[in-house]
TrEMBL record:
Protein name as catalogued: tRNA(Ile2) 2-agmatinylcytidine synthetase TiaS
A GO-annotated cellular component: cytoplasm
Record GO biological process: tRNA wobble cytosine modification
Enzymatic reactions: cytidine(34) in tRNA(Ile2) + agmatine + ATP + H2O = 2-agmatinylcytidine(34) in tRNA(Ile2) + AMP + 2 phosphate + 2 H(+)
Protein family membership: Belongs to the TiaS family.
Chief place where the protein resides: cytoplasm
Keyword Nucleotide-binding: yes
GO MF entry, a single one: ATP binding
Stretches assigned to the TiaS FLD domain: 147-261
Gene: tiaS
Source organism per UniProt: Thermosphaera chiliense
Keyword Cell membrane set for record: no
Keyword annotations: ATP-binding, Cytoplasm, Ligase, Nucleotide-binding, tRNA processing
Length: 447
């Protein structure tokens, strides 16, 4: 980095709309224009998934950051991207959304990084985000309100240089194909998953026979392949048979499938609405299936209790939860929904860790040593007798039997079709990355 060059971070959020549009798409349109000027990317575009429990989230609650060095001034950069941002937001305007563009100059200050980290699992007021920006050279622009500044700051502040990360290759649709059913050959997805399944994430759900790389909404995304390595993603992408021509494709570095939203709590008392965390406790009620097929149970620690919900879209995951009994020790992981008139504060279960299973003990009368039939009680203090052959004894005791529970200690996760963008599959445990150094990024757009 020369003396005249400085690092800049562009963050955008809350662009997605039910009418179309996508924050990642807008970020790449900005990047295409910026690359016509004197900038050098020091990172892939960052796709940062924020707290999935917030009630006003966009489809995937994802914000995007661009990071580059340049000798341009802050105002010059704003002049290049502001018009693109404004035009895109106006095209997909939604009164419920409050899109924001943020440009920060210089290294990310610690106060911004800390607040951005909290935005992954908790609620951040926009005023607090704006206050955190004070004293740092920046420009921002919002529409309909400032709520999107939280996500824009979250994207800028979560640099993922010391946290786990993955990559996603996203291909986008041509304008003439928007609104039509996406056309990606299922068999080619299954074959790609067979070849590159160890290095990619959630391509295909064999239980539901459903491909998972295509979204369902009106956004311009054709498909997204997630994985551990950009070069593998490009190879996997080239295996696919597409019956519609993509407009372009690009690679993002992201916190998807790393459980960035989960904070380990010391006690259940720390839980509050819209927060995402992992709680340890003892099962306090027998799980039951409610109207709609949802399963509920309660866990408690020494101080507090919380309801746990396992919802119908998780399919057979509910059957696992129903095998729990009061006394089992578990960890539950997910986001908390607020109480209502029909239920208390409830954690929506994403993963279940069975730490200890309470033994289920039954006592059986012994078998007759003469004829093999089951003995019956001869009366209090009189031992056992056999109704078949007449054998009697006071020296034989009942047998202790521990019943099979149908569940083992360990981790459990729902079917892939019920996964959120942020949820870490169990197969990624032990594969976490812990370091990323800014460097010259040459390959973002994929031909």
């Amino acid at each position: 980095m020369t003396k005249a060059e400085r690092i800049f971070h562009i963050g955008i959020d809350d662009v997605d709309s039910p009418a179309g549009g996508c924050t990642t798409h807008l970020a790449l349109l900005m990047l295409k224009e910026l690359l016509k000027h004197s900038i050098t990317l020091v990172d892939y575009p960052n796709l940062v998934r924020l707290n999935p429990g917030v009630p006003w989230k966009t489809r995937g609650n994802g914000a995007v950051a661009l990071r580059f060095i340049t000798n341009m001034e802050l105002g010059e950069i704003y002049g290049i991207v502001e018009g693109i941002f404004k035009k895109y937001v106006e095209e997909f305007e939604n009164p419920k959304h409050q899109p924001c563009l943020l440009i920060v100059e210089g290294e990310v200050p610690n106060k911004i990084a800390l607040l951005a980290r909290k935005a992954l699992y908790d609620i951040i007021p926009p005023d607090l985000a704006l206050k955190a920006l004070e004293g740092t050279p920046h420009i921002f622009k919002c529409f309909n309100g400032t709520r999107g500044i939280v996500g824009a700051l979250g994207a800028v502040g979560n640099t993922m240089t010391t946290e786990d990360y993955t990559f996603e290759l996203i291909a986008y649709r041509r304008v003439e194909n928007l609104g039509r059913e996406r056309c990606v050959d299922k068999d080619s997805v299954k074959e790609m998953d067979r070849v590159y399944g160890d290095e990619t994430i959630l391509n295909y759900d064999p239980v539901e026979d459903r491909i998972l790389i295509t979204p369902r909404g009106p956004d311009p995304v054709l498909l997204g392949i997630r994985g551990e390595n950009p070069s593998i993603l490009i190879k996997a992408y080239k295996m696919l048979k597409l019956c519609e021509e993509p407009d372009f494709a690009a690679i993002f570095r992201t916190n998807q499938h790393t459980d960035p939203h989960i904070r380990l709590a010391e006690t259940i008392c720390e839980a509050h609405p819209y927060m995402c965390l992992r709680l340890r406790g003892t099962v306090a009620t027998k799980p039951f299936r409610d109207v709609g097929g949802h399963v509920f149970f309660k866990i408690c620690d020494d101080s507090c209790c919380i309801d746990v919900g396992v919802y119908e879209p998780t399919k057979w995951f509910r059957n696992i939860a129903e095998l729990l009994i009061p006394g089992d020790v578990v960890e539950v992981q997910g986001c908390v929904r607020p109480p209502s008139t029909s239920h208390g504060m409830t954690l929506n279960l994403e993963k279940l860790h069975v730490i200890w299973l309470k033994p289920v003990i039954v006592y059986e009368n012994p078998l007759c040593p003469v004829c093999g039939k089951r003995l019956t009680s001869a009366g209090r203090g009189k031992g056992f007798k056999c109704r078949n052959c007449g054998f009697k004894s006071k020296d034989i005791a009942r047998k202790i039997k521990i019943l099979e529970r149908g569940i083992s200690e360990g981790w459990y996760q729902p079917p892939y079709s019920a996964f959120k963008h942020v949820m870490k599959p169990l197969k990624r445990v032990g594969r976490e990355k812990r370091e990323f150094n800014y460097t010259h990024i040459e390959t973002v757009f994929v031909m």
